[in-house]
Amino acid sequence: MTLQRSDADFMREAMSLAALARDQHAEIPVGALVVNSEGAIVGRGFNRNILDHDPSAHAEMVAMREAGRTMGNHRLLDCTVYITLEPCTMCAMAMVHARVKRVVFGAYDPKTGAAGSVFDVFGDPRHNHAVAQTGGVLAEECSVMLKDFFRSRRLEKRDQS
Question: What's the predicted TM-score (pTM) here?
Answer without folding.
Answer: 0.93
